[in-house]
Amino acid sequence: MLMFFQTHPLIIGAVLLLLDLSLWRWLGAGRPVSRMFSRIAVFVAFSWGLMAAGISPLQPPLWPEDAILNLMATMVGIAWWLFAARTLTVVLGNGLTSRGGHTARLLHDVMGAVIFLLAIVGAAAYVLQLPVKGLLATSGAMAIIVGLALQSTLSDVFSGIVLNTTKPYEVDDWIVIDGVEGRVMEIDWRSTHLLTKLGSMAVVPNSLAAKAKIINVSRPGNAYGVSVLMAIPSSVRPRRAIDALEKALQGTRALLPGFTPKVSVKSSHLEYNEYELKGFVESLSHRTEVRNLMFDLAHRHLEAAGVSWCVAPDVQAWSRPRRLLEDVRVFRSLSVDDRDRLAEHMTAVDYQANEVLLAFDAVSDCLMIISTGVVSVSIHDGERFIEAGRMGPGEVLGEEGILSEGRSRGEFRSLTSGRLFRIERCMLGAQLEHSSDLHLALDNLVHQREEIRESVVAKKPVHIKRSGLLGWLQKKRQPSA
After folding, report:
1. CA 184 to CA 218: how far, in whole Å?
2. Phi/psi class of residue 178: alpha, beta or left (left: φ > 0; alpha: ψ in -120 to 50)?
3. CATH code of domain 224-304
4. Is 44 left (phi over 0), alpha (psi -120 to 50) or beta?
5. Residue intervals in the chain for CATH 3.30.70.100
6. Where in the chain are all domains bearing CATH 2.60.120.10?
């Protein structure tokens, strides 16, 4: 065997290398430790056979008189250096991957490049007996030329190393780089790949990411900020606008209670002032829904406070009760004349904070429409009251008592001071008899709220609706034939 290796070192070396490649593919990427030990075993066998055949990778071949054998021994010696470099990179790569995961890939690649460069220099110095000093001087000059030609690429590479070392963001983090927002999908040698909200892939060079301001939305991870900007006519007193916007924040139940939501004046202009509403949510996926809800509630509370934007003259002449009937979905089936007559008989009632507007298990003798303020809705699960939602301007309560003199399935308690309008049962009786759509809308509201009550009792998540409790009527059921 040794004589055969000495006579045909290239053949035996090629067989061992093919064996190594076969074991590498057969073991697969799922068994990195087995791969590493198999490569080490083949490398040890390759080295032992090389030494036993009288071939040393630290000196030139010993058969200068036999050109063919000398060439094969030279090739085997060079192969040993490259095989050693590859084995060392596998060992280091296995250790880095087990410790650092994805972020250690760039470091592993850089170390692998350095190891292979040293292996090439070692093979040239020991096996080929080349003048290493001259080779290094030539390679240094070439490195300068190549470095100047690839300056931007090298900047991206080293910036990628810095980003993976300092870890301002990792894969699956939601970040903003230089105005580009998205989820980190990959960090490679040259760039960072972001999946944007529109589903497109944004590729940001690492050199730009290293210089730009980075906002990591996913950290610290227990709260995510959400904000809404509102432009309000400058003629509206700021205190009046801020009071209405603070009620809108109180009505947004999805905001985390541990982080106090705030309203602030963002900027001032000749025609309008810009206000910012800030809060925090527990999930990044809820930000868009909560932002839409905050904007809708802000508009409703501002309108309830008398703030208007280019309202038509006929609408501007309406009273507050008449405007409420126009906004409440359950009354949209009524004619304009019916809504006008109903608005004339609505009674205003002012309430204070922490006042029970409709008690649990009570029978309401009227339908109440919230004009201003925030009302909390709580249901009883048999042991205690659980908040199921919050109501604001344009939402109704007491529909169970109007339809069938049923008892209230929840407790309606005010969170802020405000005003509501009462519509007595006798006023709605005739309308319910002549308008099946009105009866159906109120019946749908009862059923939808009953479903919410059951889901809260069962501790099932309730999806955030765009228009609060009135959003239940968006999917209005059609009357059966």
Report:
1. 11
2. left
3. 3.30.70.100
4. alpha
5. 224-304
6. 313-475
Edge-to-edge strands of the sheet including 356-358?
A: 356-358, 410-414, 375-380, 385-391
Spatial neighbors of 272 by CB under 8 A, at least 6 apart, are 231, 232, 233, 234
Tens digits of residue pLDDT in 236-275: 999 999 999 999 999 998 898 888 899 999 999 989 999 9
Q: What is the second-level CATH architecture of the domain 167-216?
A: Roll (2.30)
Annotation: CATH topology of 313-475: Jelly Rolls (2.60.120)
pTM beyond cutoff 0.90: no
